[in-house]
Amino acid sequence: MSVAVGILGATGAVGQRLVQLLASHPEFEIETLTASEASAGESYSDAAKWRIESPVPDGVGEMTVTETTPEAVPEDLDLLFSSLPSAVGREVEPAFCEAGHVVSSNSSNHRTAEDVPLTVPEVNGDHLDLIEVQRDERGWDGALVKNPNCSTITMVPPLAALDDAFGLDQVTVATLQAVSGAGYDGVTSMEIIDNAIPHIGGEENKMETESRKLLGEFDGAGVSWHNARVEASCNRIPTLDGHLENVWVETAREATVEAAIDAMESYPSLELHSSPDQLVHVFTDPERPQPRLDRTLEGGMSIAAGGLQETDDGLQFNCLAHNTLRGAAGASLLNGELLLDRGYL
Amino acid sequence: MSVAVGILGATGAVGQRLVQLLASHPEFEIETLTASEASAGESYSDAAKWRIESPVPDGVGEMTVTETTPEAVPEDLDLLFSSLPSAVGREVEPAFCEAGHVVSSNSSNHRTAEDVPLTVPEVNGDHLDLIEVQRDERGWDGALVKNPNCSTITMVPPLAALDDAFGLDQVTVATLQAVSGAGYDGVTSMEIIDNAIPHIGGEENKMETESRKLLGEFDGAGVSWHNARVEASCNRIPTLDGHLENVWVETAREATVEAAIDAMESYPSLELHSSPDQLVHVFTDPERPQPRLDRTLEGGMSIAAGGLQETDDGLQFNCLAHNTLRGAAGASLLNGELLLDRGYL
Amino acid sequence: MSVAVGILGATGAVGQRLVQLLASHPEFEIETLTASEASAGESYSDAAKWRIESPVPDGVGEMTVTETTPEAVPEDLDLLFSSLPSAVGREVEPAFCEAGHVVSSNSSNHRTAEDVPLTVPEVNGDHLDLIEVQRDERGWDGALVKNPNCSTITMVPPLAALDDAFGLDQVTVATLQAVSGAGYDGVTSMEIIDNAIPHIGGEENKMETESRKLLGEFDGAGVSWHNARVEASCNRIPTLDGHLENVWVETAREATVEAAIDAMESYPSLELHSSPDQLVHVFTDPERPQPRLDRTLEGGMSIAAGGLQETDDGLQFNCLAHNTLRGAAGASLLNGELLLDRGYL
Amino acid sequence: MSVAVGILGATGAVGQRLVQLLASHPEFEIETLTASEASAGESYSDAAKWRIESPVPDGVGEMTVTETTPEAVPEDLDLLFSSLPSAVGREVEPAFCEAGHVVSSNSSNHRTAEDVPLTVPEVNGDHLDLIEVQRDERGWDGALVKNPNCSTITMVPPLAALDDAFGLDQVTVATLQAVSGAGYDGVTSMEIIDNAIPHIGGEENKMETESRKLLGEFDGAGVSWHNARVEASCNRIPTLDGHLENVWVETAREATVEAAIDAMESYPSLELHSSPDQLVHVFTDPERPQPRLDRTLEGGMSIAAGGLQETDDGLQFNCLAHNTLRGAAGASLLNGELLLDRGYL
Q1: Which residues catalyse the reaction (chains A, B, C, D) (predicted)?
Q2: A53 and D193: CB-CB below 8 Å?
Q3: Do both D159 and D271 map to the same domain?
């Protein structure tokens, strides 16, 4: 028996990926699609300028898009996926929670709020129980759960493996990020062809804070952030999908490449529908992973790592993930599956 | 009165840039162009597949290409610029030096040899006097002088400025390198369109060693390498020209952004013909420098920096240079100008 | 003594190119820069997001931008260059003409109006005298002069040469157009990386109509359009600047490659400041012209041609021009220079 | 029961695609893989630098590569797929045919030979019986069958549909071809980033001759080529896969867009394993088909068309196909399936 779900902000780039992923999902069934007021009342096919290579899934194109307000969404919809613009999400997501919905959101608002779980299921699924604290404090029947930024998700699973194995004191990361991370219209061709941009507004800060919350400890009352120092430099390059990252870690205990590879490759995945069989795949060819070749590993839900080397005080490695699958739509979906699995729906 | 010069390996990508730069040079005049045995005897226009946007300079296309052997080059040619493939240069450059020529070489061989000056004129021009040691040891009338790798040159001037101001303990650098750095045929389009490659064979090691030699002290007998630890991760991205780098430095003394900008912008240039007016330009817009917009700053001979931020133990910044101008042909040329200025020709 | 000029729509992509070209112009001096109401009162540096590789010219950045209305522009400004969006230009350009200004416009409105000269100076500069008809009919002291669309300009000079030599019955053209032709934000990176788009709205029609007007005859009262049939197919590809076109012509008289090359290369240029020395350059290497290598020929004001071959009923050739120089800002400027030369200012 | 097959030239770009397609094929089983002498004796994993996004199929990587000579290939291998370089294929393919093998070849040699069938199964599968003539003349037990060039295949199905419906007098075509069409190393990144090349050596001629043979009539003794005039202009652009083409046809009878769409969409496919359900898909959105969005239609085996318009003497349209699937490896495979279906194996 499938759970009826809705998508808030269904016409954008991440919303479209959610539609694609949910259309053939065994546990969830799309019942409601929302968009801005201007599109309300239109069919999904008319409201969304569909940009994914496979066609709009059967049955979805004819659905009528509703406005993104609690009044326009059926009360009994247990789970809402949100890919709203951050400023919009900040306003309306709490209203949906108050109206009793559980919201699994990719939107960047509230990610570092004390009573909002920020989870990558395989890494810190236990943080989900922060929902109890949240409900106590806010008096909600629903709940608000967040997944991190796409560039953060890419590095957190390998970092979690290294933290377990050696302890982390410091993380330094340079990213090479795909244009799709900025949304369909986010980067013009004139900006990026034969070019690179060495700064992505707000992204460095997200990586530095969200990763520490994700790697932190939940004690039943709150999350103590990990105390590693994290320093990020984010670059946009002319690739379509797949964020590549160069990472240096200073470890608390001595680390070897062999033990690090073992820690990454044996880091446990889950048995959720969208979980990859193996969370982190480590390449031995130093020229891998590469965005175009490796971004669709295990349906775009695995992390690819490589280039491991020992340094004076730790390790150096590269990692890669598909930013709109594992890094956005797939991340929200996985949180939804975890919510179902843990009995929150 | 101009000095007659030759170019060893004149038909390759860097050789062509040298031809372009030398054609209108006030101090040097091209007298000899060499290439592999297969091209010897052909006109330069026939031997070189010219790939630069401006046409082959007047008078050069008709010159006859000679073989790359001391016998084929006039004895009285004071200065030879070398852009030979490294394996070839390793063999033949010493033979030219033995035959009495001064060789300013971009080829990667011999760069870390104890008696070979590796110089960026503005940074460590004084190392040039290592030629005396070299001549003593090798019994040459000529001399061999090297410029560093293109990715090393890009970061060394800002690092030198920071070293003077605060002292450097550690340098961590991630590069985003243009395809021209691999030579005209070095990166196929199938490898790099919609992609990035997180490793460039040998490049990381060059950055880690050459930068320490360049920042080292010459005491009249030899060079003591700088003892900062340097860790590099090199990436190839789909840009044509211009290497962009993200750099973190751990400084010996406390550093501020303001003092760092001042140190970089006031770092002295020289009065050589190809010297930029200002060696390092610092942008305040965090989205700059960008390869396509900033690689031709001061004719491609300046370093562009930006994104300066304080970190817990030092500073973070970005830098950029044109890899075939400041990073290769222009670097050799500048060494040639320094050799002339210092009386070595 | 220089003529004071203004730029209507000075902050957009073509407006910026006009600023760049006019800043060092010997005959014209920028006195007024206009933009939308939102930017009025700001300095040009603040109002324009400057995207050209060389910096904002000295003295221009500090100028105050005014609104695009006749009231906001000094009455005595003889010449206004317009790069307004077409819908805006359609409304306000006539108002400026009525207020006594001569407007040289790149905007697509009015191009095929009967009493509006559409000119490429070297090809049909005599059409400029249509201004007399225009003034009679509209009662203007000023005048409105247009240059054609960038893809049209690219092929018209070689077509004019072939028409003179052999007569033209039919023209079939496929274009490979650069992203800058759509303006800075016109094509997103997600649309065009690893892709091509086989249609550009309105562009095919512009090529089919504007080229026939340009190649038509002016008899003192009006322009009889050329009666060749013109069929165009327009494609957007991932290049930054430079439109490349494959053209087939059916000629009235038998054509040879040799005579065609001669007709193109000897087609007269003018002596205006921005005129190239040679209007059409013909390459014999069949792989040329190429956008990146040949778009800046003679400062981007020449047309490059190549690939000439005889067909059963005529000829086949390729041509290329820089779409924002010869194809837009440079085209308007050249019309301005012609207006000055012919005494219309 | 599956047919044992071999791949001549299995390590190249098309050879790798063949390996991928054959690995899961229900009728064929890979038994032999050949490569140049230098690779003979190596495992396939070592000999091939695998560049396809999915991994080397199970069991294939361990196979030992043999030399490309009849002696090195088992006598009882009924079918050999050839993706040899043309110059190599010209020499050795006949030797394999003489040794009794049936060769389905993508190599460009022999394509226009009088007794060699050149087939696109859905279009002119009946030409396959030219094998009888071939065997009579050459005394072979085996046979040589060719598929056309990738750019030819793209336009021939829609042209065949239009020929049936209206008759074709003339075809004019401009192509926008992907870099993979030149093989993995065929186009360097320095040649094509921010660029286009308006000529592909030999390609124009292939399109002009092969299309006329494919659309010709086979009368049991030989093929009378279609007498339409075909004029092609071939361009390389910065896309990875998918050739896009702009086509104009002059028709013998009056054509309408509606009838043309109907002719294309109802053009029959076959029931072979690799046949698409619908051979030609026609888009009504004039901005489609686009390489990145539409090249994988029906597993990359369909032709996408669009942009249909009436002209004075016929029609104009665009078409697109995946050049290494439908245009190369898939084309050879389909010919192999047809050979099996028609009892030639």
Answers
A1: 150, 243
A2: no
A3: yes
**Do B126 and B175 belong together in one domain?**
no
| % of residues, chain D, pLDDT over 90 | 95
Tell me: do C296 and C337 sit in the same domain.
no
Domains contained in chain D, number: 2
Sheet holding C229-236, edge to edge: C229-236, C168-177, C243-251, C314-321, C303-311, C280-282
Quick one: tokens of B11? 């038909």
Do the chains contact at C307 and D194, CB–CB below 8 Å? no
CATH code of D272's domain: 3.30.360.10
Are residues B293 and B246 part of one domain?
yes
Nearest to B172 among A196, A248, A306 (CB): A248
What is the pTM (predicted TM-score) of this model? 0.96
Q: What are the pLDDT tens digits along chain A (345 aa)?
A: 689 999 999 999 899 999 999 999 999 999 999 999 999 999 999 999 888 888 899 899 999 999 999 999 999 999 999 999 999 999 999 999 999 999 999 999 999 999 999 999 999 999 999 999 999 999 999 999 999 999 999 999 999 999 999 999 999 999 999 999 998 899 999 999 999 999 999 999 999 999 999 999 999 999 999 999 999 999 999 999 999 999 999 999 999 999 999 999 999 999 999 999 999 999 999 999 999 999 999 999 999 999 999 999 999 999 999 999 999 999 999 999 999 999 999
C-alpha B345/C-alpha B339 separation (Å) is 6
Least trusted range by pLDDT, from A138-147, A307-316, C53-62, C239-248: C53-62
Task: Collect all residues from B whose CB is shorter than 8 A from any CB in D.
Answer: 51, 179-180, 184-194, 238-240
User: Do D116 and D103 touch, CB atoms closer than 8 A?
Assistant: no
B101 and B171, same domain (yes or no): no
Cβ–Cβ < 8 Å for C102, C78: yes
Least Cα distance to D328 among D147, D117, D80, D159 occurs for: D147
Nearest CA to D337 out of D140, D151, D128, D58 is that of D128
Q: What is the pLDDT of residues B69-121, one digit of tens each?
A: 999 999 999 999 999 999 999 999 999 999 999 999 999 999 999 999 999 99
How far is it, in rounded angstroms, from Cα A63 to Cα A60? Answer: 5
Strands B79-82 and B66-67: unpaired
- Indicate the angle between helix axes B150-166 and B257-265, nearest 10 degrees: 120
Q: Is the preceding peptide bond at C289 cis, omega within 30 degrees of 0? A: yes
**C110 a catalytic residue:** no
The secondary structure element, H or E, covering residue D263 is helix D257-265
Specify whether D243 is catalytic.
Answer: yes
Tell me if B307 and A233 make a contact (CB, 8 A cut-off).
yes
Say yes or no: B301 and B164 in one domain: yes
Give the total residue count for chain B: 345
Residues of the domain holding C157:
150-323
- Asked whether residue B187 falls in the same domain as residue B107, the answer is no
H-run or E-run covering C151 = helix C150-166
Instruction: Collect all residues from B whose CB is shorter than 8 A from any CB in A.
Output: 172, 174, 176, 194-199, 229, 231, 233, 235, 237-240, 244, 246, 248, 286-293, 306-307, 311-312, 316, 318
Residues A101 and A221 reside in one and the same domain: no
- In chain A, what residues touch D296 (CB-CB under 8 Å)? 53
pLDDT tens for D305-342 read 999 999 999 999 999 999 999 999 999 999 999 999 99
Nearest CA in chain C to B296: C53
User: Quick one: B173 exposed, middle or buried, by C-beta within 10 A (0-12, 13-18, 19+)?
Assistant: buried
Closest CA of chain C from D290, distance in Å: 6
| B293·C53 Cβ contact <8 A | yes
- Assign residue B99 the CATH number of its domain: 3.40.50.720
Two tokens at B156?
């060394």
